[in-house]
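PT: before anyone asks, these are the final sequences, not the draft ones from last week. 356 residues across everything. Please model them as a single complex and drop the result in this thread when it's through.
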Amino acid sequence: MSQAQWLGLITGVVFGALLQQGRVLRFEKQLGAMLLKDMTIIKFMLSAILVGMVGIYILYDTGSVELSHKSMNVGAVVVGAVLFGAGWAIMGYCPGTSIGAVGEGRWHAVFAIIGMLIGAAVYAELYPMLSRTVLAWKDFGDISLPESLGISHWVIIPIFWAVALALFAWFEKKQL
Amino acid sequence: MAQEKTTISWRPYLAGALLGVLAIASVLATTHWLGRTSFLGASTTFVRAAGLIERAFAPEHVAANEYFEQTGISFNWQFMLIIGIFIGALLSSLFDKSYKAESVPPIWDARFGKSVGKRAVAAVGGGIVAMIGARMGSGCPSGHGLSGLMQLSISGFVALALFFGTGILVANLVYKGRSS
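LR: through. Structure below.
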């Protein structure tokens, strides 16, 4: 195996263990968030984002890493995310968690994986048509919130933290 | 902290914060060792895996496909990351004995019954729609949600809001449709 493959594998093992320890691999946790009854996956995701954003922006400021924003292509992101959300609610897993769910014994997640593999193959066939239509509507490119607002990321990050911590406090108060 | 009457479970916060540390370490490690910053993501691997499977049956067709061509069908860094997720979840669940074989998710069972066939049809259908959406929008909750928001990408905020917005709507229609 190449260096890239080893690095990916090791990172993935830790990623999988953390997903499992956070208990976010479970169908009932995923649906619990969508039914607004159990915010475990929101707590997990936001905690990761809060820590990650500080580190990544420090590394960015020191010139150690590049950022890689996904393109804000309006048709692609809006239509794509709506389709994803609908499928996610039925399937009960997202791509990363479906694999981990099988790992912790929820073998029915294999059906979700099969569906997603078919979906990927279907998308490859639809791509030429989509790139002339939905994907060609309007593309704002690789934009970030700090750049678009013309505000330093070190102003936005503390605000993001404050909002997230308030949300956590509210979840715990409501026992969600 | 947990001495109050309503005990708070720190588990999702702690595991999540550690995932944040992993994301930082991973961004640094890929930049240093692979020469190109890679952020955590998952859905592109499904394209590669689908391409690999399809190639076994129709190699010319896959070779001629524009999307497979630009994605690149190989066992790359992210492909191994996904395999790692399986191994990590397996080891972790065996370690603390939370591994549990399950044929139908409990809340699905409560709403639609124990039929594995019914669950399979729904999961395959949901999976197809979700993956078409993820590839159209170039990301899933890992790529857009985690990696996108960590970088304060506009697309991450829009995608995550719509993932949940639509998810909430559909989940409530499916699970609360006839009851209550």
